[in-house]
Structure formats: C-alpha cells, structure tokens
Amino acid sequence: MPAEYTTFGLAPATRPGEIAADGGHRLHRDFVDFVVDGRPLLFRLADLDAVSPLASDVPPAILAAQVRGLLLESEAPLPGGRYLIYGCPECEDLACGAVTAVIERAHARGTGTDAADGADGTDYVWRDFAWQTDAHADLERDGYHGIGPFRFAGAEYRAALRSLLDGDGGGHAPRRRVLLVGARAAALARLAAALRALGIGADISGDTVHIHAGELRQYGAVVFGTGVGPAERAAVRDAFERAGADVARVDGTPPIVPLLVARIEQALDPGPVERRRLTRLTAAGGAADVEVTSACRVRLTAHRLDRLHHTRTQELFDGVLEPGRHRLALDARAVKGESFVVARTAGGVLVAAVAQGEPPGHRH
To answer: Are the CB atoms for 181 and 187 separated by under 8 Å?
Structure first.
C-alpha cells in the first residue's frame, strides 16, 4: 500500500480528430481525465492514444454505470478486481489494448474527511496498472511498474466522481459544434463533411442575425471563409456577443481541409494550458520550436498552397520528445511562401504560421 495519500480530481480533456493525407480520419473524443497529484494521469503513460471511460459522447446511463464501477458500487468488469482506466478512442474494444488497474477499498487513516462527511470511512486504492488486450493481465510482462499504487482519500474521491452524476464534474460540457460562415459553398461543404466524419457537428450559414441565441450558444467555434469581409465578420461577432456566447474564432487560413480541421481542433480544446502535453509551437526561417510537458510522440506536418493553388502537405518530423523545448528543422521546400505547420500529440494539436526570416532565439 502507498504510504501517503495522493490527491484525486477530474479535468476535461480532448483526443483531437484528424484528417490524414490519404483521406483517412480518426475520431474527435471529449472525455474527463483523472488528475493525480495535480497532473493528468494519462501524461504518465508515455505516448498513449487513449481516452478514459468517462467520455462525453456516451449515453448518460453508460456514463453513470462507469462512475458507479469506479466507486466500487458494481462488480469489476475484468477478473482480479480490474477496471478499465483508459481504452481505445475509436472502438473501445479491449482487443485493441487498454490500461487497467485493480481498484479496492482500504480503511481510512485517522479521523480525516471520511469521518467528517459521514461516509463509510474507506479510502480507494488504485494499484497494479497494466496494459491488457484480453481478459487476464500479465503484470510481469505488461505491468506499468513505475506507476502507483495511489491511495485516494475516500471523501475527495467520491465527491469528484459523484459530481459527474450531478452533471457538473470535470468542467462544463464541451460544445462540439462549429458554425461555418462564407461564400464558397463547395469548400465549406467539404470542411463540414470532414468535421462530421470526426464526430464534430458542423453547420453552414451566411446569416447569424436570425439564428436563435440559444442555438448560437451551442457552438464552440465559428470559422470564417477567406471571402468573408470585415463587415460580415463584425456582424457575426456581434450576434454571438448578444447571445452571450463565448465562441472561438478561426479565420485567416487558406482553404486546406486538414489544416482547417487542425485549427478547429485547437480552438475546441477545453483544457487549461498547464494541463496540456503540447504547450508551444512557433516556426520561422528553417526551424520550428516545440515545447512539451511530458515525454510523448510528436508529429510535425507542413501545409501550403502552391502557385497553382494545389495543396501541398509534407511530414517533417515524427518522434518521441522529452519534456522541454525542442528545435526541429524544417524543409525549406515544404514551407516556402505562405505556409503553416501543425504539431500533434495523442492529446493535443497546435498550428503556427511559418514566419519568413531568422528563427527566434531558443533557450534549453
């Protein structure tokens, strides 16, 4: 058993979707992550592309069942008292692999908050984390030996999880709809189709004045096409302000669908900067500066339109980076003219325009 208590909390998190160069895609998933000692637990698991079972797009009855399982109010779904902590974001099939752990009760120490809140005087312990692809976990082969065990004070643990049943845990519900505004109907239709394929709602409109305020408040971002003038942009902004909707705005980007998707995913990210894995991206001259808060795989991609307005996309880097700032070389042919770079991790995406000239100073 762990000798000390570990704090437990919840925070909104996103697994951003993506449109690949070959036309494939991966789903956008909003979920609630576990925060252990002030840090997302997922960040301790290297470059794991996974979501917790507390996903925002599951029916309320399924979410409630997952919460009650973590509270040990129902039988463990796997042998040995094991519960799913993170699973596949595409299909949630155990065969794809999942992080599981034993969850058990332990007697609370002393007369802390458990006694004060009239609960049953128990703590919760998460131990024996493992990567699992079938009903039984092999701790010797697949155990996460450097993670846990964690002992959570019962009152704190129960309050955090039960808040999800009340509808106010892990932050506000994500607004997974985007409003597309512009004159180029075909381009907007392609973007809308791409977003819907990822699981993000997308509507096209040239008139926000007559949209009901309650509907405007359902949008998380508004995207302006390249042909939208200043007066029309101002009218859209005014409509959202009158509706009391705090909406992210995406504009000034060439009509390259994968690039626009990345910018929209960045705008929809609900997590605070201090709880993100990918925190900084700048690009100038022949280099991009990337900052990450934990070891993770980073992919860097360049997007631009050539002089014939054909889309050019090139992968620039794909590798694991340690915590800190890193300078990555850019292929001059990939970033000539107006170009953008996209940095991706399993849990975040950043977009930066490439500034022509010398790269900024870099500190290790």
So the answer is: no
